[in-house]
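User: Structure tokens for this complex, please. No commentary.
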Amino acid sequence: MRDRGATTATVDAPATLDGLALIVRRPLVAGPIDAFFPLRPGDRALVEMGQAVVRGGPLAERLREPRTAVVAGPPPEAAIGPGDTWVPSAQHRGRGGVPEPGGELLFRVGGRWRVATADAMEPLDAPFPGIVREVRDGIGIRLRSPAKGVLGKEVLAGPTSGRLEIATGPDGELRAPQVDVSAAGAILVAGARIDAEALTRARAVGVRGVIVAALGVKERRDFLASERRGRAGVHGVHPFGILVLDGAARRPIASPVMAILEALEGRTVAIVGDPPCLVLDDPDLELPLPAADLVRVRSGPLAGAEGTWVGLAGPRHFPAGVSLEAGFVRFGDRPPIAVPLGDLERFA
Amino acid sequence: MGTVTIPRAVLAVDAGFATTAIAILGRPAGRWRLLGSLAGPSPVDPDDLAAILVGRIAAADPELAEAVGLRADAIEDLPRLETRSERPQTLAVLGASRRAVGLVEAVAARTPWRVNAASPETHDPREMTELALRADVSAVLLGASEPPGPDERSALDDLAALVAAVAIRRPEMTVILAGPVASRAAWIDGIGDALGDRADRIIEAPPLRLRAGPDEALREILEGLLPRSADTRHTAVRTALTLADVLGRRVELLEIGLEGGLRAVASPGVADQGPAVVAVRTARAGLIAPDPEQGSVEAVLAWTTGSLDRHRMGDRLRDLRAQPWADASGDGARLRLAATRAALAQLVALTPELSAMPSPDLTIAAGGAFALAPGPAIALAIADVVRRMGATQIAVDHARLLGPLGTIEDPDERRPFVMDLADDLLAPLGTVIIVGGMPALKRRTAPFGEIELTGDGAPTKHELLPGDLAFLDLPAGDRALATLEFRDAIRVGRRAKRLSVPVSGGSAGVLVDLRDVPLRLPERRDRRRAALVAWGELVWPADAR
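Assistant:
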């Protein structure tokens, strides 16, 4: 296994025709970040196009437990229509003299409006400072930041922000007893995998987010159910997000990603879902990048192993009688071995 | 008048979501030949693949490379036939009742659109508005019967007004109104004069039919909304059509990719009638559903022999969807083919009119899902799912040329390419003979019949048991006459005790399938696995069992 020998050398060196170019290139860092925050009908945007927002500044109010209400609504001659927010006046009464709820007008039929409404709202705060690039009621808000983002595979819940803390090594697994209140407000790097109990505890003690290499289907389902219950509760839940770096099956965090996370430890970072990434504030921050010939095995029996690219091995026979294009990879000091090209990734 | 220079070599590129395949076609002696092919994980640059392939061709046969002008430093100069898989666009499908939305969803599912359906019985108005407004939704389809059914009447006005409001809020969105919606007061009042000069984005379509009927009109409208492109599934149909005409045989094309599938049956031209094709492209038949836990896990588990539980299967499928090019050997190869079977079953379920056609002369398996598996395993996977009685030769589009060749729009220009390449572009797997109408027998261990292959060499005989699955060796390029004799009458297109069919060989040889038609797998999981294991042992090498 190769040491985590991250360097500050660029990996933009042209891939030579020895076959390195045939390996999937995994982008590590992207920027600037155009984050999209989806809104649902009834959610109310609190920002306008071109507006600058600070971290924690309000972007929108979201409905909690939204529902549809049928109301008399504004008169037909009123200059508002679908998508607009209607707030009934204090004197306004509906059928039977009952006060009507306000909300976002959906459509009018039979002289009555359908509105999206709820008994309570919850704030959607900007997880990083930026400029609002797009506001579409009922659809979403786009926020741009010149900052960089460490790209992951997907984000559950969120957005959120907090200081980055490394709780375990790249191939470790964060357990519930390891999570305590000292981590409140932090985004924890949780290693290769985390179980549902640790996620529940992290959320309970005020952790703002978790970064993990892999999250299984069961943990995902349990977490999302817990999230729904929490949002339906009286007091709601504080922002919390999970950034999944690789996928579902257990594997360690890739060393180039871990090197970047270690460089960011203690800084305030944000997790956003679209694109799924960890946003850093400082666009000028120098991040460690790996050597150009570093390759990582993404799947198969050697999943997670890292080595150096030696060259193309040509078509080779592999178990199950399949013939695949392969490349030679040297793991540590051992002789190079042939690995299917599809099982490898390199970094950029 | 200038002279037309025919290129000596062409680069064919099929850029899929999982893999990008390239092939180099050369014309060394006045005839197009496949010189080589190579595939790499997407989004690899086709030029990088081509440079490596050209290097290999030049190393193996420098004179050939010289004759067709292949040089690693001149890849950019090669003329290209390039196609790519298009990501499905999302269509929100609404109906005033569960029945109505089911009807319209069934039509939309037989198109390349990814369909999200809702009705007032499953979603409230706010949820339906949310579904239609989502950023990834490109069009909304509202379907209603003519006249509206009793179950539709109470909610149809609500839906008309809802869709009108969505059309106002998303001015870039196309709206399809299938049935008597545009004439309803709720629509007219709701849409008002908001359309302005963009009235063309509201498209009226035929109403829903209470019973299943031809759906071409609505499907054509939906397919017509998609941008004209060099989508692989679109262009491959053209090549299948030309191939059927060139070979003079009925050809079925089964293609499974990451984001969708294609089933097409092409027939050669007869007398003064040109060749004809019936094709269905669908996003529902992708290798793995976008959310595997909802769409794929159970279907794939039904075809697996391992000990994965539902959660672990979900993990594997999520990873396979995220990295469809990876884990293609060993256990991963079997999982991939199990997912392919599940996708193929979905494709077959969506195309009953094609299943009802007689067995084609040639069945072509195409797409990344079939690209890596061993030949016998592909033949068995197709026989497992496409249970059409009769005999068909099976081949694989191994160099993924069907899509690129279809980018030649003019059939007269495409024909000479396909005619020259007919022997090269398909890798023969063998012949599958599916026998149906087997009588129920108490003793399944006693021979029920036998098959004899008579070809160039010594005749081969094999005894057949009820429910049997038999592979007989017949190398690629060899032809033989298969004579099947049974104790009682069986059905292979017609009822008979004895029949003879010409067969051709391949890596799978001749597969005689006497299992149920349609295939009935045991309900109990352990018995189902045992059956799948027994069949799998016939086609997978020992190291993968």
